[in-house]
Design a protein that fits this description.
Layout (H helix, E strand, L loop, with lengths): L1 H7 L9 H65 L4 H25 L5 H25 L10 H5 L8 H21 L4 E3 L5 E5 L7 E8 L2 E5 L4 E8 L2 E17 L2 E23 L4 E3 L2 E7 L2 E2 L3 H7 L13 E2 L11 E3 L9 E2 L1
Parallel strand pairs: 1-3, 2-4, 3-5, 4-6, 5-6, 6-7, 7-8, 7-9, 8-11, 9-12, 10-13
Helix pairs in contact: 2-3, 2-4, 3-4
Length: 351
């Protein structure tokens, strides 16, 4: 009987304590959470390292592409200067160099979101030097007689003819030189020297490279369709509304103006008291500017959504409010620009 009692009191016959089982479950749960947390940290660390390596690799790849293209363009300019093409081929050859520079500009715009700021600045400086070299080449090779307007003044206004032939020729030559300098500054189709006019251009169905808007006062300009590059210079109290620009927009010397435009890259120099409604792939750049305000793009016309998609500008990036002031190097935001308050913004401009 005693043996039976001992057999019945062995540990195997005693039920487990429920509290011990709960403790074991809690312990296992804690171990599992710690293991999952450690795995998550490890995966995040690998992801960050991969992103860093990818960014570094992308920057290196860009620098190689940029350097190769820059050298090729410099070689083209040097070769053209040493051995100019035939006169019948000169213009198309120079246009080809201009297109290559625009493509290089577009490359910077499309990749600037992952490039260090100093690389963006250095690249833009190199592109500016290439454009200046091409402008100098245009001045050297294009025949001077192409820009002569000396006969226009006397035909339009006989009263302005001087009795002194020498004085009349001097006035005409001065006008010709001024117009030639303006033309050489940006040799492209455009709208120039207008006052208090509404000017509409439709580029749909055409292949426009560079387009210039210069010397306007109190004008309203509307551009429908796409161009490769847009240059804006010396505007006062104007409104400019554009479709997408596939390359870059350069704005210089504007005051009291309103701009609504979409582009891969926008650079603004010497602007005062002006508003910019933008859609842009890279961060807008301002320099020597103050009292400029920014808001999102607000232009509409039939087919604009398709035009924006074709120019790779179909999606809003939010970069309109990420402005870089190259004259402001402190960590805090530059006082030269601000976000335009919503209650002060214009409505969508329908062209």
């Amino acid at each position: 009987m005693a043996d039976d009692d001992r057999a019945s009191s062995t540990p195997n016959s005693i039920p487990s304590d429920p509290s011990d089982a709960n403790l074991q479950k809690k312990h296992a749960s804690v171990i599992e959470r710690l293991a999952n947390r450690n795995q998550t940290r490890l995966e995040n660390s690998i992801t960050r390292r991969s992103e860093s390596d990818s960014s570094s690799s992308s920057t290196s790849s860009f620098l190689v592409r940029f350097s190769d293209s820059k050298r090729a363009i410099e070689s083209e300019i040097a070769q053209c200067r040493l051995t100019p093409p035939e006169p019948t081929q000169l213009r198309s050859h120079l246009d080809g160099i201009s297109t290559s520079i625009s493509d290089l500009d577009k490359l910077v715009a499309e990749t600037s979101y992952f490039l260090p700021s100093y690389e963006v600045r250095a690249s833009l400086k190199s592109i500016s030097e290439l454009k200046q070299s091409l402008d100098n080449l245009n001045s050297e090779l294009l025949p001077k007689k192409k820009f002569s307007f000396k006969n226009k003044g006397t035909k339009k206004d006989p009263k302005s003819e001087s009795k002194d032939p020498g004085l009349g020729n001097s006035d005409s030559m001065l006008k010709s030189k001024q117009e030639q300098a303006s033309y050489n500054a940006r040799d492209s189709p455009g709208i120039r020297d207008k006052d208090s006019e509404v000017l509409v251009k439709n580029f749909k169905g055409s292949d426009i490279g560079e387009f210039t808007i210069s010397g306007l006062s109190s004008c309203e300009v509307k551009l429908i369709g796409s161009v490769r590059a847009l240059f804006i210079h010396k505007l006062r109290n104007c409104k400019v509304y554009t479709g997408p620009v596939m390359g870059s927009i350069l704005i210089d010397d504007v005051e009291g103006c309103t701009f609504a435009m979409a582009s891969h890259q926008i650079r603004i120099h010497n602007a005062k008291n002006s508003d910019f409604y933008l859609r842009v792939r890279s961060r807008p750049i301002i320099e020597d500017s103050w009292s400029v305000r920014f808001a999102p793009y607000c232009v509409s016309y039939g087919g604009i959504e398709e035009d924006l998609r074709d120019a790779s500008l179909g999606e809003e990036t939010g970069n309109w409010e990420n402005v870089d002031d190259f004259r402001w190097l402190r960590a805090v935001q530059s006082p030269n620009w601000s976000i335009l308050a919503e209650d002060e913004r214009i409505d969508t401009v329908k062209i």
